Amino acid sequence: PAGVYLSQASAILSCSSSPKRSHASDVEFVDHYAVMELDNWATSEEIKAVYRRLRGEYFGSNNVIKYRALQAAFDVLADRDARWAYDKIWRARKGLPIPPPLKSQDSVQKARDRVNVSVAEPPAPALVEVEMEVEVKEAEAETEAVTVVYGPLIGTRPYHSYIPLLEVYDGRDVHPKLKCGRPKY
């Protein structure tokens, strides 16, 4: 479909479910770290900085092949899950151990909660009740201070509801003092 961007990274990652091929015959493998001139320990900030620098260079030199390779490398390395899957393949090709599995944010939060629950002491019940009463009183005081009663403004001040054009201009087309023209409706 038009408008869909298919990077080499998605092609490589979709091939991971196909039967395994030998590393020597795997010609289409692209070393994204080499494309972006980074090592495999680069942080996401370093990846973004190098991407911005190289994007300007490759776009300015009209080098489409390098620009597309850079875009594909950035797509893979900037996404946490895609980078982990790519690192598994990359490390296997280099003979390095595979990276540890990603920890989801939920598991990290649960671990923090377990630590916080075991460390924290429950508050005294009397202290909680006193704090609740103070909060309620503060909330009531704030609502009383903010509540403003407005009086009606209609009919409190007299004003002219019309402009007496006939009296001011007195049949003339020009105002006697202001020397401006009479409005025409």
From TrEMBL:
Gene3D superfamilies: DnaJ domain
J domain boundaries: 31-90
Native organism: Melanomma pulvis-pyrius CBS 109.77
Protein name per UniProt: J domain-containing protein
InterPro entries: DnaJ_domain (IPR001623), J_dom_sf (IPR036869)
